[in-house]
């Protein structure tokens, strides 16, 4: 964090703030920030078990890379329906809803039996859409799982895994999953990479290859992590998330997870064995249909 020395506003103190006074001011501000985090963590650690869990699938029609993506058919079913059906198999979810700003998506989802929450077009990302939907639900929940609608083959056990990770890590406000990165995806900016510490907390996310070695090439012996996109939040944290100002790293990488880390919150990461099949572009539809047909997945 960079510190800016405030100008004096009273005549008696028109001289610049002394070094000692400025240091004391900086310590006070830092203490207030630390205190806010400590209070939040204390509140959550006092709760033994975050038991009530809702899964939310954010879906918007407008997309710079793939207009109308949630409604694209994957072997005869809308992709949003396939995602919803997979999410319903998770044992930790008390409820699954779709959060959208588009009436065409809402109508489609109601047609196959999904609960729908209408949200504003102004939501900048999935987390903000989940936050708005959470506050419109008629029941209270302790954990919200943000289920990406563009991975229609998501494993329900991964949903359960990140929920349990957050339930058993009281100092974390966020949990997510990674899997092994395929060499051919190393420099694909649509495949987000993640590095974690030795306690399983996220250090950084990037669209570039991380870590990046001096040779500039992928090290076939290194266990790179691919971020799967699915994530769960402490519901109290999710309520304040939209009010956190955008951060430099978040804006540069266009990754919402970085705003969480840059604000000093902890994120628990689990590693799973999963063959990720996200649909980022129209070309990905044929790839995932081919994969499903080869494995007799209807």
UniProtKB/TrEMBL annotation:
Pfam families cross-referenced by the UniProt entry: CTP_transf_3 (PF02348)
Matching Gene3D superfamilies: Spore Coat Polysaccharide Biosynthesis Protein SpsA, Chain A (3.90.550.10)
Cellular localisation: Membrane
Assigned EC number: 2.7.7.38
Molecular-function annotations in GO: 3-deoxy-manno-octulosonate cytidylyltransferase activity
Pathway: Nucleotide-sugar biosynthesis; CMP-3-deoxy-D-manno-octulosonate biosynthesis; CMP-3-deoxy-D-manno-octulosonate from 3-deoxy-D-manno-octulosonate and CTP: step 1/1
Domain of life: Eukaryota
CDD domains assigned: CMP-KDO-Synthetase (cd02517)
Keywords: Nucleotidyltransferase, Transferase
Catalyzed reactions per annotation: 3-deoxy-alpha-D-manno-oct-2-ulosonate + CTP = CMP-3-deoxy-beta-D-manno-octulosonate + diphosphate
GO biological process, one term: carbohydrate derivative biosynthetic process
Cellular compartments per GO CC: cytosol; membrane
Family: Belongs to the KdsB family.
Protein's name according to its UniProt entry: 3-deoxy-manno-octulosonate cytidylyltransferase
Organism (species): Lactuca virosa
